[in-house]
Design goal:
Pdz3 Domain; alpha+beta; 2 domains; single chain; disordered N terminus; 6-stranded mixed beta sheet; 2-enoyl-CoA Hydratase, Chain A, domain 1
């Protein structure tokens, strides 16, 4: 069965596991749902007999499937060949287009996030924007695949996007020139003071290994001892659960990383640091597995940046490092997606699959991320964004999605509302920051925090006798 392409296609947007569909379970469902299924068949017969136009059976069945899954939660979905192909292309990269991750929300094309450094990112397109027109043609109510196909095209050609940005009265008209999109899951750079910045843009294959390699490269570039590390998870929509665990294990040498709890015993388990059985299941060689034993940067103060676009696998990493006291979490409250989707192949050729929510995940302290997300230790607004105030007011999180799972542990509304409280430390305007040459205030604040502190006073707690592999 062609399982690998299915896993790759889902890795872009959510934490995904793979489970088989058993015939026993299917038989139980059939027995219980017989009378209700009879209603579905009766309605199909009436539509086929009396609808004003002839309707293909395939259209009716697909509509019934989509309606059934949309009644569950925002993340369960049926994926057919075109959806899998589109997501595979995004993950593989090497295509010409704008560099946008988008979804269809109530008939409108909504931006999840622009890929860092892409033409869309350079033109200022933001997460939460709605694309309403392409070259003047209304696309609201149309097909997402059609919209994506139109936005792609030969590098060097341009397309005009009409964008509705919540909080703005007038739409934005942007002419964006297409480019060759080469997705880089991990990028890094060395800042003054021997402070490393590692940005994780998505949790695709080998992210854990790539971050390890980035750390080694930063040490080689440094003029002396590393003074700090910033792990940037902002606007990272998630990806592979395996890679979230592998990345966290680089910085934590013992204890739990994340637990997963579902209805069935097979969906309830936990991941531990240095869990060799886990890595053996991933079929790594012993040499490869050794990379993930112990921790890197053990004596280096560390800050993790998150924002409302940090979801799923990003929240697993941030939550684990926060609970272990290994890093200071800075930025804005994360998206709040605390559920795991299992990918169930529906045919032997791997051309269709069911992405179904099967479990919730919890941080090492037992906190559910669902709805509430990860609250930063220090809330830092992105003051360098001129639309920050409006974006904060109309920001969409998991708790805003129709049909989202409820946090069964409970979270008070006022806990999430504390993000709205003004902090007297952050009163500079965008213009004042521009005069100072600050383009990314959150990153600037994290770097300054590391520069003015010592390893013993921030972002380095509970180290004890942990092993170092610097």
């Amino acid at each position: 069965m062609k399982i690998a392409p299915l896993l790759r296609s889902a890795a872009l947007v959510t934490a995904v596991a793979l489970i088989p569909a058993t015939t026993a379970t299917m038989a139980q469902v059939d027995g219980r749902a017989g009378p209700e299924l009879a209603k579905v068949f009766a309605i199909m017969q009436q539509v086929q007999a009396n609808y004003v136009e002839e309707v293909d059976d395939e259209v009716l069945v697909r509509g019934a499937i989509d309606g059934m899954l949309s009644a569950l939660d925002p993340h369960s979905a049926y994926l057919d060949g075109s959806d899998l192909e589109r997501l595979n292309t995004l993950i593989d990269g090497n295509y010409s287009g704008l560099g946008l991750s988008v979804i269809m929300e109530e008939g409108a094309v909504k931006v999840i996030s622009p890929f860092k450094g892409s033409p869309a990112d350079q033109m200022g397109i933001k997460a939460g924007d709605y694309i309403t027109h392409l070259d003047g043609d209304l696309i609201v109510g149309g097909s997402l695949d059609d919209a994506v196909a139109r936005m792609r095209g030969k590098a060097g050609t341009s397309i005009r996007l009409t964008i509705f940005r919540p909080g703005r009265e007038e739409p934005l008209e942007l002419d964006v020139t297409r480019g060759v999109i080469e997705l880089e899951p991990v990028t890094y750079e060395l800042q003054s003071g021997n402070i490393g910045v590692i940005s994780i843009n998505e949790f695709s294959a080998d992210v854990g290994r790539d971050v390890y390699d980035a750390w080694v490269a930063l040490q080689e570039q440094a003029t002396g001892r590393m003074g700090g590390l910033v792990l940037d998870l902002r606007s990272n929509p998630g990806g592979s659960l395996d890679e979230a665990v592998a990345l966290t294990d680089l910085f934590v040498d013992e204890g739990q990383i994340v637990s997963q709890r579902g209805r069935s015993w097979g969906e309830t388990f936990q991941f531990e640091a240095d869990d060799m059985n886990y890595y053996l299941r991933r079929r790594l060689s012993r040499e490869q597995a050794q990379i993930f034993m112990g921790q890197i940067a053990a004596d280096v103060p560390m800050i993790v940046l998150i924002d409302a676009g940090s979801a799923s696998a990003s929240e697993i990493v941030a939550g684990a490092l926060q609970d272990h006291g290994r890093a200071l979490i800075m930025g804005q409250r994360s998206f709040g997606k605390g559920s795991v989707q299992s990918l169930i192949p529906l045919d032997r050729n791997g051309t269709s699959a069911l992405k179904l929510t099967t479990a919730r995940y919890y941080t090492p302290s037992g906190k559910s991320v669902q709805e509430g997300g990860i609250a930063p230790d220090i809330r830092v607004p992105q003051l360098s964004d001129p639309d920050f105030a409006l974006r904060e007011k109309y920001q969409t999180r998991e708790s805003d999605l129709r049909g989202h799972l409820i946090n069964e542990l409970g979270i008070a509304d006022e806990e999430m509302e504390e993000d709205r409280i003004a902090d007297p430390r952050f009163q500079l305007t965008t213009e004042q920051l521009e005069e100072q040459g600050i383009e990314d205030f959150q990153l600037h604040y994290a770097l300054e925090t590391l520069r003015r502190t010592t390893a013993s006073s921030v972002a380095l707690r509970n180290v004890g006798n942990r092993r170092s592999r610097n």
